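Hi all, posting the design record for the shared folder.

TITLE: backbone redesign
STEP: 1 of 1
STRUCTURE INPUT:
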């Protein structure tokens, strides 16, 4: 969690996608989706991505110094608007409240974070904090997921027209049933429904990948066969009536901006804590040629 004082962000705090569970704040295990997530979406100014990432590294450093118990994962957009997302997992809204209270009781950490805050305006043009609930019934193969192995995340979002929620959920469950029937094992998604901070009726589907090659997977034929002609017609009809907008974005996970538990990072230590590139030894100065 990243403690803020700006009114741009929810309840003076802004946050980030599922990491390993931590005692005292949440009990979600490393391979189970969090029941509630808090997402901070930061709009990064053009050409300020690298500088923003360097600045943001100060936040997890401050949390680690204070041994803060709540962890988060950070990722930057590879498509769509220039954004950084920070996702924080919780067991409930009550555990989210406990996280805020824990931060408020640590004046040393608060002082370090407040020192970082003024420079945010150099890198950001806006931001939004979002709260969302886990929808297990709309998820496909949601467990086990080891977030420590995620290098990329695909995020598919859909906004449903008012009054069409049940129809939309029927369609989403048809997708899960078709994938299950087809026995597809090389795809997964974790579904969340927005509770606050974005337009109601918005659903977010997260697909963690270790490599971008996983985005090349095409299961359309198996899916169509499992869905059947009648199912495809029914789903097309529901989509036409119920969905107001759709968007798909690809993100790269940022180890520098993330604050994960040691257990989560142990799944891929070379990614989360890469060894610094060794500098080549300095060569001997060449002798100047005689005149």
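Okay, here is what came back for every position:
SEQUENCE:
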């Amino acid at each position: 969690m990243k403690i803020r004082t700006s009114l741009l962000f929810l309840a003076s705090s802004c946050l980030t996608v599922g990491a390993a569970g931590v005692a005292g704040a949440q009990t979600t295990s490393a391979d189970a989706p969090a029941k509630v997530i808090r997402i901070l979406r930061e709009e990064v100014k053009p050409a300020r991505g690298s500088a923003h990432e360097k600045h943001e590294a100060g936040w997890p450093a401050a949390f680690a110094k204070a041994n803060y118990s709540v962890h988060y994962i950070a990722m930057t957009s590879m498509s769509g608007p220039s954004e950084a997302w920070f996702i924080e997992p919780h067991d409930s809204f009550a555990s989210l409240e406990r996280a805020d209270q824990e931060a408020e009781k640590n004046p040393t950490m608060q002082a370090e974070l407040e020192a970082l805050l003024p420079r945010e305006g150099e890198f950001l043009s806006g931001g939004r904090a979002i709260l969302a609930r886990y929808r297990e019934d709309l998820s496909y193969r949601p467990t086990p997921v080891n977030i420590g192995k995620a290098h990329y995340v695909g995020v598919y979002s859909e906004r449903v027209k008012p009054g069409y929620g049940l129809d939309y959920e029927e369609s989403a469950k048809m997708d899960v049933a078709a994938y299950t029937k087809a026995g597809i094992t090389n795809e997964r998604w974790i579904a969340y429904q927005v509770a606050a901070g974005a337009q109601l009726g918005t659903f977010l589907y997260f697909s963690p990948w270790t490599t971008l090659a996983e985005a090349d997977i095409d299961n359309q034929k198996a899916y169509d066969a499992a869905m059947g002609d009648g199912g495809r017609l029914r789903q097309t009809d529901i989509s036409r009536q119920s969905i107001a907008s759709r968007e798909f974005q690809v993100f790269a996970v940022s180890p520098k901006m993330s604050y994960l538990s040691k257990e989560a990072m142990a799944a891929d230590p070379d990614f989360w804590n890469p060894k610094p590139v060794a500098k080549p030894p300095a060569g001997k100065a060449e002798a100047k040629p005689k005149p």
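COMMENT: The two ends are 66 Å apart (CA to CA).
Let me know if anyone wants the other runs.
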